[in-house]
Design goal:
homodimer; 394 residues; alpha/beta; Rossmann fold; Rna Polymerase Sigma Factor, Chain: A; 2 domains; nine-stranded mixed β-sheet; two-stranded antiparallel ribbon; 15 strands; 33% helix; 18% strand; globular
């Protein structure tokens, strides 16, 4: 039953196929359950992932990309639903900081996700119906444990580098803590070692918006044939505001009106910002599962790395041999620089090898996904240096 | 038909009745319509208001309090639905900065509101049914115009002082601009002369949450006998986060669990912040009308005082004779100090008499409603000084 199922090559239209994208799935049967932090044993389960580039002979050139809340395994190749190019185009590809001509990049969809890896929209073997809320609650630790099983399956021992932003950055920190011997370099971007009260609050608003939608049907909408699209759209809209800075919103939209000269004295989208938010909400529901949104936000809320190590974050990193490049953005109010600084202090406390860069930008949390030359230059330098130390040719 | 309807005395339990609260309504008939900015003429309409203290012989001691989005005319007396004491207990009362032993305080419910002043939940005389979305969209200018009509009705010419926070502060600025000769002192707190893109965005999320609730029934829920409570609760939850600072949330709740030792691996309110937000949502719907929430948020979104004066905010204040005390809070990210500074710059440009105080606090936007001794000391000093200049005995 344990198979690796090559779904075939994907060609990225804008790079002449040089990125070498391959999408695949790995299924783990009853003999290889995923031991969840909740105590539940999940099996069978499948991990969907995409790889870019070529694994070298000694398997020393592996870069693991951990994706954020609503992203997926298509970091550098087209999304099958939207047709849009990969979500990290400036970071991953031939000649980019994560250079697919040199590195073998693995980007798996997280457990609990909705792009092929087992999650609440998949069939519960116990009932023959979609899990819905019967899917077990998962954690960042569970996501990483599943990824480690995938690497074992692929015969990959340790990682040259593990990198990710936001929820992806949480996974990076978890990797360093849970598998200290398997990580050579770690790049947690715009993230935190524990989710703040304000961030839990915003997630709770999103969950309540979904659960308030009668079409959510207590999570059984796939069985009932309904669609909690309105609730999910509201959740997305609320979250989207937190991804941007006030400055960016002001610069991009200000109080500009949408295709009209004056306000309409009504509740249409008079302002461009309203139209933009509505668009963000309505397109999101076409590509994301509402229950997945509940589960992944919950995993982030539960993340408190110190809590697993006697309440002292430094203990989480005590055994690490990794070098770290911690990145934050000045205008990120969702994961402010102070969050990254806590991680850096903990790493310093155990004399870990750590660089810390706060990038000056007004683009807010989303900056990690955008064209930020200073971030690229920083990461290119860090990755190249680590590669030289690792004996990977430039 | 034009009547002032004394609803009778209210006694505030905690002050022995010394605050002298009186609730009343004033109804304006077909001969006195409210000319709205939308071009619509609204009639009849009623303004519900509460007064505290005693009007002096020359009517020179009137303080007008303008309330914020979800507040009401019960600034210093018990709310009839919740039974809770007035919302500005430290500010208004005998011996308080707005001293009801010296001043005659008027606090009207805004037009479009839901506590007695005409709004979308009231009967549309054209149909005999509640207005719902047939209620005309109103503006901050309309709120102030209605208040001016109330003062005319009461035989009050000019105001010793007009004061308010947030949406109330918008009304204060509008008063100074629209009725420059009628305002002696103006205190706009935690507000802006125009609503920002981010604030419009948060309001839009709240409106979409309400409109996504099928029980909203295109605004006709009072006719249909439904109740969009879930949507309104989500709107309130999202908004409530913006009223607090991240620091305050962290200090008050952090990642504390709610009545449990460990997380439940489920979607209950594991964290205190979740429980608190749910409570905020569920209690709000008992005291507020969903359509009113749409209309009042819209009025704030539309507020752009400069826009009415050739795009130059200073022009709005060119005729003012008022002295201003502009107040902001360091941790207010909804109406940050930069918003207040824009108002101050405009006032300075026309050589207005203006004090500007940024209060250091970590309580966020809601600080204007809380026990902030520095704010009280500032306003006590400003009001006492203005009263002396006005010839009102201390």
């Amino acid at each position: 039953m344990n198979t690796i199922d090559r779904a075939g090559d994907e060609k990225r239209p804008d790079d002449g196929g040089r990125v070498g994208a391959q999408s695949a799935t790995a299924t783990f049967g009853a003999d290889e359950p995923l031991a969840l932090d909740s105590g539940v044993s999940l099996s069978p389960f499948t991990i969907a992932y995409t790889t870019y580039g070529t694994l070298n002979a000694d398997k020393s050139n592996v870069v693991l990309i951990c994706h954020a809340l609503t992203l997926d395994q298509y970091a550098a190749s087209a999304h099958p639903t939207t047709g849009k190019a990969g979500w990290w185009p400036h970071m991953v590809g031939p000649g980019q900081p994560i250079d697919t001509d040199r590195f073998f990049v693995i980007c798996p969809n997280v457990i609990g996700g909705c792009m092929g890896t087992t999650g609440p929209k998949d069939i519960d073997p116990a009932t023959g119906k979609p899990y819905g809320l019967d899917f077990p609650v998962i954690t960042i630790g569970d996501m990483v444990r599943a990824q480690a099983m995938l690497l074992d399956r692929l015969g990959i021992g340790d990682l040259f580098c593990v990198v990710g932003g936001s929820m992806g950055g949480m996974q990076v920190l978890q990797w360093a803590a849970a598998y200290p011997g398997r990580v050579f370099a770690a790049i947690p971007i715009a993230t935190a070692a524990r989710h703040s009260a304000q961030n839990i609050a915003f997630h709770e608003v999103g969950r309540q918006a979904i659960m308030a939608d009668p079409e959510w049907q207590q999570g059984a909408y796939l069985i009932e044939g309904t669609n909690p699209a309105k609730g999910l759209a509201v959740a997305r809209m609320a979250a989207h505001i937190t991804y941007l800075s006030e400055t960016a919103l002001h610069r991009k939209f200000g109080r500009n009106l949408q295709d009209r000269e004056t306000v309409t004295y009504g509740f249409d989208a008079d302002f461009q910002i309203e139209s933009y938010l509505r668009h963000q909400g309505s397109t999101f529901v076409d590509r994301f599962d509402a229950n997945s949104y509940l589960y992944l936000t919950r995993a982030m809320d539960y993340f408190d790395l110190a809590d697993d190590y006697g309440g002292v974050l430094a203990n989480a990193f005590r055994g690490t041999k990794a070098r770290f490049c911690v990145v934050s953005f000045t205008s990120d109010w969702l994961f402010p620089t102070s969050d990254s600084r806590q991680t850096v202090h903990a790493l310093n406390a155990v004399a870990a090898n750590v660089s810390f860069v706060e990038i000056r930008t007004d683009k807010g949390h989303d900056a990690f996904l955008l064209d930020e030359p200073e971030m690229f230059a920083t990461l290119r330098g860090f990755i190249d240096s680590a590669a030289r130390t690792r004996g990977l040719g430039a």
